[in-house]
């Protein structure tokens, strides 16, 4: 009997994620009968039951859960191969760099300038996203390399650390804690981070993509606005603080808060000379940049110097 094909994998993943044949068919843009037939054929090929069907719902079996994880990985690999092949074979191949705006410790402009002189370098396209978007972009082939802070799931990803910098507490200037010069995480009981998690946890890895507890995606400007009005607190690295000083926000040191480590990351299967050149340049630039707390004084508006 033949092995499952990509179409069958996509059909199964849609049904397993939607837990409903009708919704899955709508998502896939096909009629429900051929979708049902495809899933039955897949189960016959594998010799196991992947889904338990009732009149009201679809439940994924233990075997189905195992297959779902691997099917997703296989589809990601196929999508990545297609995207990378199309980029490499285009008339103007580019190096696609995934990044979250302002979370580059100020290194990106210098990296891009030096990269221009690399013999193996390509033109660069920047792929901006929220926190948590960069690693998926590497895995599915939308990006070739990324600059992002730890922590993140590095399965299938190679990386090098570029620099480490302190993180600070961003809190409304009207909050009683703003009267202190230093705080501890335990002092933040009752405060929440932009994703709605308790601030005293100090963020547990891996962090989710940027979003508020309402489920809406937030950019950095929106997060800082929520900090100003006292709705949330935030732990930005010093390099972000230096770019976003506001009279309504106080920045304070947190004695037991882990620092932020910035990395350059790429798929472990990459053999691209252009990626290797970018990683080398990023490392050189970072080596010339102050790190491990050797940062200039913050502007007076923060009420804090390091």
In short:
This protein is of the alpha/beta class. It has helices at 6-18, 21-28, 32-46, 62-88, 108-115, 134-139, 220-228, 238-241, 273-287; strands at 51-53, 58-60, 94-99, 123-128, 145-149, 157-165, 168-172, 182-183, 249-254, 260-267. It has three domains: 6-85, Winged helix-like DNA-binding domain superfamily/Winged helix DNA-binding domain (Arc Repressor Mutant, subunit A), CATH 1.10.10; 94-161 and 261-291, D-Maltodextrin-Binding Protein, domain 2, CATH 3.40.190.10; 168-254, 3-Layer(aba) Sandwich (D-Maltodextrin-Binding Protein, domain 2), CATH 3.40.190.
Structure description:
With 306 residues, this protein is of the alpha/beta class. The chain has three domains: 6-85, Orthogonal Bundle (Arc Repressor Mutant, subunit A); 94-161 and 261-291, Periplasmic binding protein-like II (D-Maltodextrin-Binding Protein, domain 2); 168-254, 3-Layer(aba) Sandwich (D-Maltodextrin-Binding Protein, domain 2), CATH 3.40.190.10. The protein is built from nine helices and ten strands. The protein has helices at residues 6-18, 21-28, 32-46, 62-88, 108-115, 134-139, 220-228, 238-241, 273-287, and strands at residues 51-53, 58-60, 94-99, 123-128, 145-149, 157-165, 168-172, 182-183, 249-254, 260-267. The termini are far apart. The relative contact order is 0.14. Residues 292-296 have low confidence and may be disordered.
């Amino acid at each position: 009997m033949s092995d499952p094909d990509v179409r069958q994998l996509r059909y199964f993943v849609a049904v397993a994620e939607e837990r409903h044949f009708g919704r899955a068919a709508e998502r896939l843009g096909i009629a429900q009968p051929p979708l049902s037939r495809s899933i039955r054929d897949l189960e016959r090929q594998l010799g196991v039951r992947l889904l338990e069907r009732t009149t009201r719902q679809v439940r994924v079996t233990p075997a189905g859960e195992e297959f779902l994880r691997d099917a997703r990985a296989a589809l990601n690999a196929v999508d990545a191969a297609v995207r990378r092949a199309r980029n490499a074979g285009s008339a103007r191949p580019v190096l696609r760099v995934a990044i979250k705006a302002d979370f580059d410790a100020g290194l990106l402009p210098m990296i891009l300038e030096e990269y221009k002189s690399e013999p193996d370098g390509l033109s660069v396209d920047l792929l901006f996203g929220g926190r948590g978007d960069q690693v998926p972009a590497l895995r599915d082939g939308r990006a070739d390399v990324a600059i992002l802070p730890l922590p993140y799931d590095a399965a299938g990803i190679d990386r090098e650390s570029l620099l480490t910098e302190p993180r600070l507490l961003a809190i409304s200037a009207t909050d009683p804690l703003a009267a202190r010069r230093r705080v501890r995480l335990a002092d933040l009981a009752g405060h929440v981070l932009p994703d709605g998690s308790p601030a005293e946890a100090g963020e547990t890895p891996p962090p989710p993509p940027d979003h508020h507890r309402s489920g809406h995606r937030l950019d950095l400007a929106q997060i800082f606005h929520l900090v100003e009005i006292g709705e949330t607190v935030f732990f930005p690295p010093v390099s972000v603080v230096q770019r976003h000083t506001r009279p309504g926000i106080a920045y304070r040191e947190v004695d037991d808060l882990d620092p932020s480590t910035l990395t350059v990351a790429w798929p472990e299967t990459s053999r691209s000379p252009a990626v290797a050149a970018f990683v080398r340049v990023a490392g050189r630039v970072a080596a010339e940049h102050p790190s491990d707390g050797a940062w200039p004084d913050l502007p007076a508006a923060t009420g804090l110097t390091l």
